[in-house]
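Justification of computing resources. Each target in the renewal requires a structure prediction run like the one illustrated here; the chain below, 242 residues long, is used simply to show the kind of job we budget for.
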Amino acid sequence: MKEWRRLGAMALLFIPLTLLACTGGQSSSRLNKNSGPEGPAANALWGLLSQCINASGNQTCACPSLLGSCCAGPASSYADAVWATTPDFVALRDVKQCACPSEFVHGLALPRVKVTGIEDLNRPNAIWPFAWQTAATKIANPQEICLAINPPQARSQNQMHVHMMRLLPKTRTWLDGVQQLDGLVLLDLTDLHGVFTEVLVKVGADQMGKTGVVVAQGVHGRYRALLTDRTAAEHFCQKLCD
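Resulting structure tokens:
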């Protein structure tokens, strides 16, 4: 476990602990550094799901809680804002993609039932293949896909969401072992169907709720995970277009 303990200090050098709102038109939630975000704004994503995705007849950009993903346009295309739906999951355009070039990608994959985050014992492994398959419809090269989930200490929302973005070139060098970052925890994954299970085995139950996870494809096509300690995993991906 020494490699895990070193990660906190090293990751903090690379990843500033910043919080960005996941939906438009919402004030920032308060962050409890021990347990995660607090306050009404921390439930904005759950409100979006319950009011605009799961509620019958509200699947339009006119639904107020969906305005962020609709880039604040109530007459915008719902299909542009909601990328994919299944009975268990939904994928949305993140507000960070609004006003960006067409090649920029930033989406969120969410469970359609209440799951707070990686610390939740009901965390669904199936969200990872769903997120990857959705990202692949936006990013043609699988080597460029970057999935990330932040720990409670580095997120603004209390509804699980996996970020779907492009991988930063610097992250590729660490992912493939071309360049070493002391203390960075790398995990070879069997596949995408048991990511949470394999991370739990690696870090232990006491650290699971403090862990950020980045999932990408290694140079030889196998999936690998980068694990952070209480810091935002999404910073290993291209989260902004500027």
